[in-house]
Design a protein that fits this description.
- The protein starts with a strand and ends with a strand.
- It is mainly β and 235 residues long.
- Strands 12, 13, 14, 15, 16 and 19 form a 6-stranded mixed sheet that branches.
- Helices cover 2% and strands 37% of the residues.
């Protein structure tokens, strides 16, 4: 399938640093994309994905290398300048708005940070923890006391914003959740398990599992009160 993603102009300049990527611009439309820290004069592959994840590269010289994206796609290959930097102004199609992008140094198999095409909508009430931004799926301030928000639960489905994912459980997450009230009693992770907020006791299991409903089309909700699904995106 041909992707509507092409580099109309390529400007090469700058000095090498750690691999980095910056994307700035509206979507759809022209975006300014810059990268640095790549092998001088080397090939740089442009990879995109539908969101954060850990897809491995299926082939090529870096086969098996793990990216920070899911729904991985190869788009094109660029060449860095003598200082290991590159800059481009591609035209981004609407189909890619909200998608993730990473640059791959084909010589060293090193990846840049993950960026998102366009100003993808997302929560503004977030918590930084262990390399991710966390939020409730309905963007409730984490510090909101129980009963101070419009509702104490999310029994109606909410979409997961582009570039975000339902938060999987990882060790220590229950402690982070318990630092805040989230204007509910328990937060729900991607496996459907519930974890106590600060107002509902010490960190740990709240009322067990099975409390996440929905899909990527209709959105996600919790079938009981007082619960909220937790989402995250990589920094």
């Amino acid at each position: 399938m041909r992707m509507a993603f092409f580099f109309a102009t390529l400007t090469l300049a700058g000095a090498a640093h750690a691999q980095s990527l910056s994307v700035d611009g509206a979507c759809p439309g022209a975006s300014d994309i810059t990268g640095s820290g790549f092998t001088p004069g080397g090939s740089v592959a442009v990879l995109t994905g539908s969101g954060p994840g850990s897809d491995a590269m299926p082939g090529g010289p870096c086969a098996g290398g793990v990216t920070d994206m899911t729904g991985l796609r190869y788009i094109t290959t660029l060449r860095a300048d003598g200082g290991g930097s590159l800059a481009a102004r591609p035209s981004i199609s609407g189909a890619l708005c909200g998608d993730s992008v990473q640059f791959l140094d084909v010589t060293t198999c090193s990846l840049s940070n993950r960026e998102i095409f366009g100003d993808a909508p997302g929560p503004v009430n977030t918590v930084v923890w262990d390399g991710y931004l966390y939020a409730s799926i309905d963007d409730v301030p984490p510090e909101a006391d129980y009963g101070t928000w419009e509702n104490n639960c999310t029994t109606e489905p909410y979409p997961v914003p582009p570039g975000w994912e339902l938060a999987p459980y990882v060790a220590g997450l229950e402690t982070m959740i318990n630092l805040y009230d989230w204007s509910t009693h328990c937060m729900v992770t991607a496996d459907g398990f519930t974890w106590r907020c600060n107002n509902y006791g010490p960190p740990g299991d709240c009322i067990g599992g099975g409390f996440l409903e929905g899909d990527d089309v209709v959105g996600y909700s919790s079938p009981a009160c007082s619960l909220r699904p937790l989402i995250r995106t990589r920094l």
